[in-house]
Amino acid sequence: MNKFYGTGVAMVTPFQADGQIDFEGLKNLIEHLIDGGVQYLVSLGTTGESATLNASERKQVWEFTAKIVNKRVTLVAGIGGNNTHEVVEQVKEFDVADYDAILSSSPHYNKPTQEGIYQHYKAIAQATPLPIILYNVPSRTGSTVSAATTVRLARDFKNIIGIKEASGNFDLFNQLMRDKPEEFLVISGDDPVTLPMMALGAVGVISVIGNALPKPLSVMVQLLLNNDYKAAQKIHSSLIEFTRLMFVEGNPAGAKCSLKHLSVCGDHLRLPLVPVSAATEELIIQETKKF
């Protein structure tokens, strides 16, 4: 369980100008993140533009990532969707050898009931031996995984070990922290509120901004795990404007812009996503230089 304490990064997927996967850029990114002191990497979460990759491409990215990481840090695979049968088939076919867990977002667009969400995750949990991290992100899915549903899943399935919580709803978060099994992990899924979430018991973050700035983020999260909130607050404050700019024109456009100016990889995205505007790019460059 300690594998998922600390800083995780939901990696972007670098692309070439023609839209093909940039594997050299992906290698550079992995080394950048490991050198930055992160505890684990999430390959092909929503930040990785997984919705725009086909099955063959996803397999290539997962295999390449595992090869480059070579057991140096914990690895998590993002496998989710709103067709439960299809997600279950992907999970069954997934090569679990080099991965430590699966991160799976709640079904988007369909807006299932809480019972539907429960049954969706039940089917996934029964299809894989890997630990599962739930992902609650209502801003993208259109529905919320309630605290009660999360607790029910945590109690019913031993391989559902945690949740990436990105609802921004502290009433839900408070209920979850009060009622969850002791060993169940709550992980911040929203960079701006990592500090207050960890103050209330979250064990770390699965971050977007960590793509560009893994080192200061990792230091801040470790300080929080050590209960040194005063020192962590200073780093948190220094990251506020950078974090805002990462999302002002959508994710992962902001992160890719910063990574381009750090010479890690390019800023190409797949439609319907596009790079940030020239005005936002200039602001991101200025903030990136500060670090």
From TrEMBL:
Molecular function (Gene Ontology), one example: 4-hydroxy-tetrahydrodipicolinate synthase activity
Enzyme class: lyase
Listed EC numbers: 4.3.3.7
Cytoplasm as UniProt keyword: yes
Protein residues bound to pyruvate: T47, I206
SMART domains found in the cross-reference section: DHDPS
Active site: Y135, K164
Pfam families per record: DHDPS
Main location: cytoplasm
Domain of life: Bacteria
Catalysed reaction equations from the record: L-aspartate 4-semialdehyde + pyruvate = (2S,4S)-4-hydroxy-2,3,4,5-tetrahydrodipicolinate + H2O + H(+)
CDD domains, per database record: DHDPS
Record Gene3D superfamilies: Aldolase class I
Family (UniProt): Belongs to the DapA family.
PANTHER family: 4-HYDROXY-2-OXOGLUTARATE ALDOLASE, MITOCHONDRIAL (PTHR12128:SF66), DIHYDRODIPICOLINATE SYNTHASE (PTHR12128)
HAMAP family noted in UniProt: DapA
Quaternary data: Homotetramer; dimer of dimers.
Role according to the record: Catalyzes the condensation of (S)-aspartate-beta-semialdehyde [(S)-ASA] and pyruvate to 4-hydroxy-tetrahydrodipicolinate (HTPA).
The protein's name: 4-hydroxy-tetrahydrodipicolinate synthase
Species this protein is from: Mucilaginibacter sabulilitoris
